Structure of Hydrolase:
Amino acid sequence: MIICVDFDGTIVDHRYPELGQPVPEAVVWLKRLQSCGARLILYTMRSEEGVAGNTLLPAVRYLQEQGVELYGVNHNPTQESWTSSPKVYADLYIDDSAFGCPLVRPPGFTRPCVDWKKIGPAVEHLCLSRR
């Protein structure tokens, strides 16, 4: 199972271009999803170049430091063989801006973020059922 995961509002609080506080349980669930076979693609608007400089590298490093292995960053490595579309292919997308995504607003956060207590178990169940 390939899962695209947004960064700001999904893994950390919205503090772009800085890194916000960790979204509760995000890293725990990302690791659990990997342990059940999910391949994670960081799918974010953060980029290597821009007005704010390289905002992508700190996000990638943050995940690496937390022990989250990325299958891809804003790109699915297997998709080049069957399409030239720039849209990143995945089986599932987790994003705080997605319609219907359960949200929570921890104290001190600038905006609501993904509620991993709800999302995590549901996605893990889906991942395990596809084994």
